[in-house]
Amino acid sequence: MASQVLRRSLSTASTQSTLKIGLIPADGIGREVIPAARQVLEALKSGPQFEFVDLDAGFEYFQKTGTSLPQKTIDTLKSECHGALFGAVSSPSHKVAGYSSPIVALRKHLDLYANVRPVKSVESPAFPSQKLLDMLIIRENTECLYIKSEREEVDPKTGLRVAWADRKITEFASRRIGDMAFRMALTRQKLRSEIPVANRFWKHNPKVTIVHKSNVLSVTDGLWRETVRGTQLPGVDMEEQLVDSMVYRMFREPEAFDVVVAPNLYGDILSDGAAALVGSLGVVPSANVGDNFVMGEPVHGSAPDIAGKGIANPIASIRSAGMLLEHMGYTSQALKIYEAVDQVLADATVLTPDLGGKSSTQDVTDAVLKNL
Ligand code: ATP
Questions:
Q1: What gap in Å lies between CA 41 and CA 333, rounded to an integer?
Q2: Atom of ligand 1 nearest to the CA of 316
Q3: Does 155 share its domain with 252?
Q4: Which of 354, 358, 368, when mutated, tests ligand 1's pocket best, judged by the most ligand atoms within 8 Å of its CB?
Q5: Distance CA 54, CA 275 (A)
Q6: Whose CA is nearest to atom 15 of ligand 1?
Q7: Structural domain that includes position 261
Q8: Based on the structure, what is the number of domains in the chain?
Q9: Domain boundary residue among 278, 294, 312?
Q10: How far does the centroid of ligand 1 lie from the alpha carbon of residue 89, in Å?
Q11: Which of 46, 195, 232, 360 has the fewest CB atoms within 10 Å, counting from its CB?
C-alpha cells in the first residue's frame, strides 16, 4: 500500500510547474554546500521552476535561541513546501540540556521513514584503485534503537550502574521499507535499461540484500527478516546477510550489492562505512523519503574542522538535490545533475582537498554548472 501512496504523491509533484523547496543549511559546512546545491537547481534548463524558502534549525540556532527546530520551520515545510534540502547539524559530544537533533525530529514530523543512500563510484584517473560499485543502501528511519528509550539504574547487588536501551521493530515499518527496497530495485533496473547515462556497474538481475542479526536478536531482527522477506517482488532476487559479514563483504566485494535494506542502526553504520569506498564523505548524498515529502541531505556532518574555509566538497549536496528531484518524479532532470557531477569526478581536474585536489567549493560548483 505504501508504494501506491508514494507513487501517487510523486506523480502529483511531477506535474507542478513551480516547486517550493525549503532550504535548511543548519550548521558548519551546511551553510556552504546548500547554496551550491541551490545554484545547480536554479541552473537546470528544463523541468520545474523553483521557489526557495530559507529556514532555521541546528545546534548553532539552539545556542542562540534555546530551540534547535523552530515551529515555523516545521509549519512552513508541512504547509507550503513540496520538498526540502537539509545541510548538516553539529552533534555536541556531551549531553546538552534541552538540545535534541533537529534532523531526527524533522524525519518524525514529516514521516520520512526511509533514508535512501546511493553509494556509487565513478571511473576516474583520480581514483585508479577504486572498485566499481553502485549500490543503494535503504535505511529504515523511524525505529530500532533510535526510539531513544534508554534508562539507567544501579544494580543492587554490585552497586554499579546499569544502562538499558529498548529496540523497537514493527511489522508495519518493516513492511513499508521492504516494499520500497524491492520497488527501487526494479526502478534501478528500468533506468539502467532505458537511459544510457544511468548505466550503472550492476550487470545482474535486480537484487535486494536484507541485513539483520537474527541469529542473536531472534525476536526483533527475526520479525524484521520475516517481514521484509514477505515483500519480495517478482523479478527481483533476494539474499540475506548478517550485519557483521555484511561489513566484511561490503569492503571486500562492494560490487556484489545492488539494493541493501537495513534497520536503522545497521543502516546508519553501513552507509557511513560505504562512503569510504568512494573516496570521501563529501560525495555521498541521501534522501529522506516519505509518502508525501522528500528531503535531500548529504550524508556528511557539519565538518567543523573545515567550516568557513570555502573548501567543503559540495558534491554530496548537489547529488542530494538530484535525489530530491528523482524522488519527486523528475527523473530526467535528476539524471542531468548526476551526469554533470560524474563528469567532474571523471575529469578529476577540479576537486576539493578531501579528494586530493586544491579547488574550492565554488570552483567545483562552477564545474558542475558548466557540465549541465
Ligand atoms: P559532526 O559533529 O557534524 O558530525 P564530524 O566532523 O564529526 O562533524 P563530519 O562532518 O561527517 O563529522 O566529518 C568527518 C570528516 O570528513 C571531517 O574530517 C570532515 O572535514 C570531512 N568531511 C565531511 N564532509 C565533507 C565535505 N563535504 N567536504 C570535505 N570534507 C568533508
A1: 9
A2: 27
A3: yes
A4: 354
A5: 29
A6: 303
A7: 131-278
A8: 2
A9: 278
A10: 11
A11: 46
Give the alpha-carbon dihedral of 314, 296, 186, 242, to 10 degrees.
Answer: 90
pTM for this model (two decimals): 0.90
CA atoms within 13 A on the CB side of 251: 9
**pLDDT in the model for residue 14:** 57
Q: Is residue 206 in some structural domain?
A: yes
Q: Is 104 exposed, middle or buried (0-12, 13-18, 19+ CB in 10 A)?
A: middle
Helix ranges (H only) for 143-263 are: 171-194, 220-229, 243-252
140: which 3 cell numbers?
A: 529504515
Tell me: do 201 and 141 sit in the same domain.
Answer: yes
**Vertex 134 angle, CA 184 and 209, to 5°:** 55
Cα 90 to ligand 1 centre (Å):
10
User: Are the beta carbons of 28 and 90 closer than 8 angstroms?
Assistant: yes
Query: Which residue's C-alpha cell is 581536474?
Result: 349
Q: Are residues 168 and 197 in the same domain?
A: yes
Nearest to 2 by CA among 179, 129, 133: 179
Say yes or no: 250 and 312 in one domain. no
Answer for the pair 88, 295: CB distance below 8 angstroms, yes or no: no
Q: Judge whether 33 and 317 are in contact, CB under 8 Å.
A: yes
- 150 φ, ψ to 5°? -125, 150
Per residue in 92-107, pLDDT (tens digit) is 878 788 898 899 899 9
Under-70 pLDDT residues of the chain: 1-16, 195-200
